[in-house]
Specification:
Helix content: 40-55%
Mean pLDDT: 86
Order of helices and strands: HHEEHHEHHHHHEEH
Largest sheet: 5 strands, mixed
Number of helices: 10
CATH superfamily: Glutaredoxin
Number of strands: 5
Length: 233
C-alpha cells in the first residue's frame, strides 16, 4: 500500500510539473545568446563602394572600416566617445586604416535624421568630424533647435547652416539608409571591415554590430594584414 501511495504521489507531482506549474525562464541564459543573433551582419558577396561616405584617413590605407551610425543611438555614442579616438590614434592617423561613415537614422530616434543632415552640412565646410565629435559628446542635446549652436561652435556660419539644414541633405541621408537596407543592416552601430581593391571598391571580410571594444577591431585589423602598433595610445 505504501509503495502504491508513493507511486501515485510521484505521478501526480510529475503531471503538475509538466502541465500546471508556472514556466520560468532560465536564471542565467547563455551570455550574449540573443545579442549574437541580433548582431549578425551578412558579408556582402561582392565588393562595395565608399562613394558618398564621409572619409577619414590616408588614401593609401589598405584596410577600411565602414560604420553605419545613428547620432542619437546610445551605443553609437559609446563607440564614438570610448573607442573611436583610440582607433583614430592607433590605426587611422598612422595610415593603416581608412574610416568611412554612413548614416542610418532609426525611426524611433526623433532627432537622428536632422542630426545626420547637420553632419552633411558640416561636411560641405570641412567640419564633418568636428561636428561628429561634438554631437556624440552631447547626445542629450541634439534637437533641431539645438543644432545651430553646435554648428556655430565648430565654425559654421549661422546663415549658411540655417539654409542647409532646411532639408537639402535629406536625400543624401536617405541614400545611406537605403544602402544599409540593401546590405541587410538593421542595427546601429554596424561595422564592416575589409580591404581596398585596385578599382577603389572594398572587399568586406569581417562585420559586427554594437559598441564593441577596441580589441575586436584590433583582432580584425591584424587578420586583414594590419600591424598592432605596441605602445601606441
Amino acid at each position: 500500500m505504501g509503495v502504491q501511495l508513493a507511486f501515485i504521489v510521484a505521478a501526480g507531482s510529475l503531471v503538475y510539473a509538466v502541465f500546471f506549474a508556472p514556466k520560468r525562464e532560465a536564471a542565467n541564459p547563455p551570455a550574449g545568446a540573443n545579442a549574437s543573433r541580433r548582431g549578425e551582419v551578412p558579408i556582402p558577396a561582392t565588393p562595395i563602394s565608399l562613394q558618398g561616405a564621409a572619409l577619414r584617413g590616408s588614401d593609401t590605407a589598405k584596410i577600411v572600416i565602414l560604420e553605419y551610425s545613428d547620432v542619437q543611438c546610445p551605443y553609437c555614442g559609446k563607440f564614438a566617445r570610448e573607442t573611436f579616438g583610440q582607433l583614430d590614434a592607433k590605426y587611422i592617423n598612422t595610415g593603416q586604416v581608412k574610416f568611412a561613415f554612413r548614416h542610418l537614422p532609426l525611426g524611433n530616434h526623433k532627432d537622428a535624421q536632422k542630426a545626420a543632415e547637420a553632419l552633411e552640412c558640416a561636411r560641405d565646410k570641412g567640419r564633418f568630424w568636428d561636428l561628429h565629435d561634438r554631437l556624440f559628446l552631447n547626445q542629450e542635446r541634439i534637437g533641431l533647435s539645438e543644432l545651430p549652436s553646435h554648428a556655430e561652435a565648430v565654425g559654421l556660419a549661422p546663415a549658411d547652416f540655417a539654409a542647409c539644414i532646411g532639408g537639402s541633405k535629406a536625400t543624401h541621408v536617405s541614400a545611406d539608409a537605403e544602402s544599409a537596407k540593401l546590405l541587410g543592416i538593421r542595427v546601429t552601430p554596424t561595422f564592416m571591415l575589409g580591404t581596398m581593391q585596385p578599382d577603389g571598391l572594398v572587399r568586406i571580410k569581417r562585420a559586427f554590430a554594437g559598441a564593441v571594444p577596441l580589441a575586436n577591431f584590433e583582432k580584425a585589423i591584424i587578420e586583414l594584414g594590419g600591424t598592432n602598433l605596441v605602445g601606441s595610445n
